[in-house]
Amino acid sequence: MEHMPLSELSFQLSRDPLSYRSDFEAQLESYTTLRQSFSSAPSQHIGRLEELLLFLSQVVKHYPDHVGEFASSIIQTLLSRAFGMHPEMRMAFLRAFMRLRTKNLIPAAQAVDVAFKLHRCHDKQVRKTLRHFLVSDIKRMNKSQKQTKVNAVILTFLSKMIKDNSSTVAREAVLILLCLFKKNVWNDARTANTIADSCLVNKKKVYVPAVQFFLGKMKAIGELESSSDSESDVDEETKIKQLRMGHRVGAKTKGRQKRLERSIKNVNKEKERKVKKRAELTNFHALNMLHDPQTFAEKLFRKLERCSDRFEIRLLILDLISRLIGLNKLILLNFYPFIQRFLRPQQREITHLLLYSAQASHDQVPPDVIEPLVRVIADNFITERASSEAIAVGLNSVREICARCPYAVTQDLLSDLIQYKSYRNKNVVAAARSLIRLYRQINPQLLPRKECGRLTESQVDVLTHDYPNDVAINYGQYVTPATVPGAEVIVLAAEKLGKKKNHQASEESKCVENSEECTKEGIIVIITIITI
Predict the structure, then answer these.
(1) Nearest to 299 by CA among 254, 344, 327, 330
(2) Is the keyword Iron assigned to this protein (predicted)?
(3) Contact, 483 vs 465, CB < 8 A?
(4) I need a labelling partner for 306 at 20 to 30 A (CA). Which of 33, 200, 265, 285 fits?
């Protein structure tokens, strides 16, 4: 048996472990000798040791008395010699370690601890391999049943690693949390709040992925592309290849060529649509799980005020703060004067900044805070000396802010803005008319009398029941709803179900009548035949 290949020995051993115990122990002794010589010179590559690592990690589970010794030797070698080890040997020991963990021969908490100690190694391939392994291992561990206790221990450890002095280690901890949340393995409130804590870390490499996660901009993080996304891309490439291969058979006519180009264009368009949908998807599920969004937004804003990173990163933080304010209707009064200084037509990413201004507007912001913001937009964008594009953008921005906060504009300013309905540019005219239509619905009294239009039945009903004094809602005034919003769906569903049952009953009665008529006709025919 000495010269039996290790692959064959592994097969025979898995079938009958007791008969091949001596062969296993011989290979284990050979491994121990080679490992000791390797420890003295870790920069060398020993092919035989690499083969033994593969063999022993596959079959050691059959001999529980040797598992602890072998696992300890793997972990000790990795922790003591990983930094100066030959790259191929390092990956061989790492694969053996991962194989042992997959067979549950190493505890999960210990495996995570060892993995993060190896994250300090200056080898990108090792970090990437360990990251994907930890995510897959935790997903496998929770596949049949949630391991609550183990998950809590690992999450506590990852929370500690986020605050580590090494930005590389902290970033890896954040990326693992993001992957687990994205794959719906850990999608609870504790994980979401741990990710939120990482947004407040001072290291750029750590907080940028977390902020992008809350904004739904996961496409910007190459490491977080899930296997399902890559598989869908491969499927689309395969479709295009199949179309091209099919075109190679048969006559090369112009009609077939046009059909091929059209089919490829449709496949690419579908791919772009999926990418755009993924990029624009905001993770409101995680934002809704935050325990204290007000405190989180205040801390983020203080971080933004002190932030000296490049402009694109500051925009990300600004975007997240505005979404938090709009989603939870937070009161962060210093945010609006802060963003006002950027609202100029020549400012970089001005459309995004105007969007953030609208996102942060809601009906609980005091008028004396929101009115200066609208005034700045009007003074900088909606003037005769501004270009048509700037005027249209300014009017649309004012309309979006006013839709969320009806008292954001004064009557005098609104009268000036709607004068652009007769401007020479059609985009400006459309923007001004949309502002008029908005105020016809939410507060017609701010408009000049000739612009109010005729009130619809719904508007009359609202003014009669909700605002008896014919005055639109003011700041701090709330209207108690008469019914639960959306409750009408239950009534409609009940009516639909009743109609369906009535239809079925009528169909059944028709069938019974038809069968009775057929029976009568049959009896008459039989009697006639007998008579004849």
Answers:
(1) 330
(2) no
(3) no
(4) 285
In which domain, by residue range, is 432 found?
A: 306-465
Residue 224, phi then psi, degrees to nearest 5: -100, 10
Q: Is residue 264 exposed (0-12), middle (13-18) or buried (19+ Cβ within 10 Å)? A: middle
Radius of gyration of the chain (CA): 35
Split into its structural domains, the chain has a count of 2
Contact predicate 199/300, CB 8 Å: yes
Q: In angstroms, rounded to a whole number, what is the distance separating the alpha carbons of residues 447 and 375?
A: 18
pTM metric for this prediction: 0.77
Q: How far apart are the first and last CA of the chain?
A: 100
- Which of 440, 465, 490 terminates a domain? The answer is 465
Cα 337 to the chain's mean position, in Å?
A: 31
198 φ, ψ (degrees, to nearest 5): -70, -20
Binned at pLDDT 50, 70 and 90, residue 502 comes out as confident
Decide: residue 247, CB within 10 A, 0-12 exposed, 13-18 middle, 19+ buried.
middle
Euclidean distance between CA atoms 121 and 82, whole angstroms: 7
pLDDT, position 449: 76
With respect to residue 73, please indicate whether it lies within any of the assigned structural domains. Answer: yes
Q: What is the dihedral of CA 103, 109, 111, 113, to 10 degrees?
A: 180
Match 């008292």 to its residue by tokens: 407
